[in-house]
Each structure stands twice: as C-alpha cells, then as structure tokens.
Amino acid sequence: MKRIKVNGAELAYRDEGSGEPIVFLHAFPLNQTLWDGQLAAFASDYRVITFDWRGFGHSTLGDRILTMDVFADDLTGLLQELSIERAIICGLSMGGYAAFAFYRKAPERVSALILADTRSTPDNEEGKRGRLEMAELVRNNGAPALVDIMIPRLFGETTLRNNPQVAERVKAMIESSQPEGVAQALLAMAGRVDSTDMLPQISCPTLIIVGNEDKLTPPDESEKMSQAIPGSILEIILNAGHLTNIEQPESFNRSVSDFLSSRN
Asked: Which sign does the torsion angle of CA 184, 185, 186, 191 carry?
C-alpha cells in the first residue's frame, strides 16, 4: 500500500492496472479493502485506484474537520498528485455522498458516475440524532461499539443467513477503525447537503446500483435518483443488502462492466 500527502493528511492508497482510471470510494465505517474484489476484477482493463478516507484505515486524520466537501477536496488532491484529469467515480454509501460533493465541485473531472447503495437526500431529524448518538458512543467506547449496531443494517438477510464470513470480514474492518475519524464522519453525514436538486444536472453516464434487501438506502431511493438523472441506468442486485459489492460481487462487477462497456 502506498502513501501520499494530500491537504495535510497522509492518505493510504492503491494504484494498479492501466487504462481509463476508475476510483472506488468506500463506505462508512470501513476502509479501502472493501474494494478488494473490484481491484482484482478491473485492474486488467482499467487503472484502479482505491484509498482510505482521512481518519479511516491507514490514512491519518489530519487537522481538518471532516465534511463531505473535505472528502471531495481530498479526492481532488489525490487525482492531482496521480496526474489524473478525469476518472470514473464509484462511490458506495458514504462514498456516494462524497461523490455527489465531488461532482458538485468538479463535474468536468467525472467521465462516468457509479452510485451504489446511496441516496441524494439528507438525513431527517431522527437520522441526525441517531448519528450524533453513535458519534458519542464511538468517542466513549471505541469503534468496536458500532459492530452490533451496524452489522444488521449493512447486510441483507440472505447474506446474514448464508454468507456469515462476509459479515465477519466487515466486522473486522469496523473494529479496526479510528474512533475519531468514525465520529467525525458521522457528524459529516448528518450535516451533508441535499443533492437532489443537482441530479437533473448530472450529464455524464451514470449507473445506480442497489441491493433489493438494502435497509439503509432502500431501492425506492435509487429509483427516484434514476428517474431524476438523465439517461441513468438502474441495476437492482438480488439477495444483497447495503454492501452489494461484497455480498454479490459477481453481479456487482458484471453490472459495472456492462455499464462501462456500453458507453463506447
């Protein structure tokens, strides 16, 4: 794993393969190893970049308070350091929120957009309260305190019943997370802006992916986004919850591959 200094933080990243760049943005409260299966699948045809958000995985937190705009600025800085002008951006969950922030700032740098298990709408008041309570919990008890809360939410019932080893892998990611990074990210998500008005302005090819068992960002949220983004494609992954890329990796990768090929 490589390291690079961006906006006062040291970001851990991987840069493999060659061709058109595709950047994968990981979900909360995980790290870039979420994308191991996609790195392996796409590095033969694309230049694949994964990285840990500041305050997650092996990236340092730095001295900036986390917001979606800070995440977007870090993505901009990373692309600049890697001499990448335009890239395919794939964001899952919180990675999708950051992708919206990045597109708002620099639409010309996005050659295609993949929004997986995410939503354009902000948190309601109940959702904000829940994130504030989780942030306090993590600051007082560490990241492992989130495991019992997050695992049932992140996975579909099919995965929890038939593929418990995937849940164990994610449990280990959560337990190894940096508590302050996790807490600040929770507050950043609670404070994120509504991106719904931006959806009709998205002009690049766009794929929306969602698991049919997703409890956190249900399929109807993705259907609304697809209706609002001109020419977008909606793929519903069966037998998957919120983490479609590791619950049903073959279906996820096939959807991404077909979408990217269809642009030509």
From this structure: positive
